[in-house]
Amino acid sequence: MATLVSERIGQFFVESDAGRDRLEYTEYGSGDRWVVLLHGQLMPRRMQQPLARALAGEGLHVVTLDLLGHGRSDRPADPLIYSVTAFAEQVVLLLDHLGADQAVVGGTSLGANVSLEVAVIASDRVRGLLVEMPVLDNAVEAGIIAFSPLMFAARFLPFTVDAVRWTTRPIPRGLVPFWVGIVLDTLDQRPASMGAVVHGLFFGRIAPPSRQRRAIQAPALVVGHPADPIHPAADAAMLAAEMPNATFVKAKDILEWRLRPDRLNALAADFCLRAWHGAGRGAGRGAGRGAGRGAGRPAGRTGGRAGAAKRRTSP
């Protein structure tokens, strides 16, 4: 039986040379054992709601964030402000806004890569890494094939993106299955901002290089999927082998964590709890371990600070 947890919606602001932008997040549960969950490319933070509720039910304080250009956060049309490093800086600003010294940081696909970047630019803030479907060396060709048409459509055929949005937006999300609703939310794009996001990621740094990944000391749980061309399990296995305190878990199939989540939810909860109970700091391999090391924080393309923030309680 699911445990009922409190849910609150909040917002904060980031400033850059391009202006001031608003980011929105949802908190689940309470306490000082923070977990930040990040979404996939062009997807909303709501995709992490089932896992967030499961982790909060175990006593963790979980936050899901809409990165800039996604979900209910602002969606500027400038490709220069989008990069994995810029997204990682937004996560650090979120921690500052929440008053969280450390968090287990994790995500899916793009969110996985952003989590790795957070561990590079702010390793002292990362209690552990929960990484699903990272996009690394083995995914380059498939990623280009999958996302190039989206950038082309957004730039040269914007009416096609608008037509999809106008068709899907009127469908009540409460009348369709949860994951159908997530697909509908993902299709709710604006041509200019969608093209900017894809362009910024295409021509920027998509993930820390192998040399930096090998230096990440935070405990990590890395989940890979079989038969997934855009997120090959080989990338996840390679990442787990590179990081000194990582454990690799292979999902049974590409939809296990979406449709049959109990096994992976339990592994994720156990990992996060171990990281916060101290087993993650200096214990053996496989138990969520490793000591974080201080690191410099190179400025990304959206370098900024958290502005005045507002938080409200959801009904």
From TrEMBL:
InterPro entries: AB_hydrolase_1 (IPR000073), AB_hydrolase_fold (IPR029058), AB_hydrolase_sf (IPR050266). SUPFAM superfamilies: alpha/beta-Hydrolases. This is Alpha/beta fold hydrolase. Residues 282-315 are annotated as: Disordered. One of its GO terms (molecular function) is hydrolase activity. Keywords: Hydrolase. Residues 34-141 form the AB hydrolase-1 domain. The lineage of its organism: Bacteria, Bacillati, Actinomycetota, Actinomycetes, Propionibacteriales. The keyword Ribosomal protein does not apply. Residues 282-306 have a biased composition (Gly residues). The keyword Signal does not apply. It comes from Nocardioides bigeumensis.
